[in-house]
Amino acid sequence: MKVVSIDLGYSSVKGVNSEGLTVNFKSYAAPYVKYPMEEDLKGVVSVGNAKSESQKYFYGDRAIKEGDKCGGFTMNQEKHTHPYHDILIYTAAKKLNFKPGDFLAVGVPISYRNQKNTLKEHLQKLQGFVGVDGNEPARISFENIVVMTQGIVGFSLLESLPEGILISIDSGEKTTDISVVEYYNGDIEPVPAKCFSLETGFYTVVDTIASMFQERTGYPISFIKAREIVDKGYAIFKGEKLDFNEDVSRVKSYLTRAIVNSLYSHLGETADFAAGFYLLGGGAEVLPFNQFIDAEVMPDPQMVTAMAYLSLVEESLEEEAG
């Protein structure tokens, strides 16, 4: 029996298991299509049951190549109700070698913590034969499920912390979780009344660049294409190179300033007297937080949440075992 931890974000799916195996792929899926020039099933997941033929889907980067056929759930507050949620969970679980009896650790953003029970109930209903990348399908169902709250868990991985109030900023694709804890004498105590989520994240940068592209060219573009422009800083459109580097930098700066301003607006003196600020999530390394706040980036910030889920569940199981 092992623990499999999955952090299914709006941008990417991160996961790790007790054996040290990790995964990180884009949170996109698309209906499978057999193309003449493709001979392998890399980037393909199949899901079915004993009585029916399996359905195949592209996932991750391979799904993104399908363009308009590709689907993510950037705007869904209840991710588990999206049709591709289960496909991505199955994919991550299979890639992490999930077996019957294993524990599944997942989480929800702070502002969606009222979804803990409904997410757990939803996952308990899932069962199917899952194959990934052409590997032999295996039965996957989730019986032992632990649902946690994002953000707060990240502190558990840090070896050295200053005593006092500590604040973490978990900046993701759609939400930014602000977590506040008190650390004294080696104990971490969350301050629930001070923890909150902002309905903003890196999606804002991509959406703004998409609007700017349309203003400059008169053509609307998909979110995926806009994300590509943000990552590269330019676009080749109708044979012309359009530079967006300055626009991307400016929008990132505006977003980061807005997040930091909201943090201080919500927390007031709590933020003023904090002993430390910590960054995690996808925005930790791509948004210029240190222009506005003195903060430490947690090691491997994209994987922090999944690793923390794993660590906390393993610790709990060890305590129960005595």
Topology:
Blueprint: E1 3-8, E2 12-17, E3 22-26, E4 29-31, E5 44-48, E6 55-59, H1 61-64, H2 85-95, E7 103-108, H3 116-124, E8 127-132, E9 138-141, E10 144-149, E11 164-171, E12 176-184, E13 187-190, E14 196-198, H4 203-217, H5 223-232, E15 234-237, E16 240-243, H6 245-267, H7 269-272, E17 276-280, E18 296-297, H8 304-321
Parallel strand pairs: 1-7, 7-10, 11-17, 17-18
Antiparallel strand pairs: 1-2, 2-3, 4-6, 5-6, 5-8, 8-9, 11-12, 12-13, 12-14, 15-16
Short description:
By secondary structure, the protein is α+β, with helices and mostly antiparallel strands. The chain has 2 domains: 165 residues, ATPase, nucleotide binding domain (Nucleotidyltransferase, domain 5); 139 residues, ATPase, nucleotide binding domain (Nucleotidyltransferase, domain 5, 2-Layer Sandwich), CATH 3.30.420.
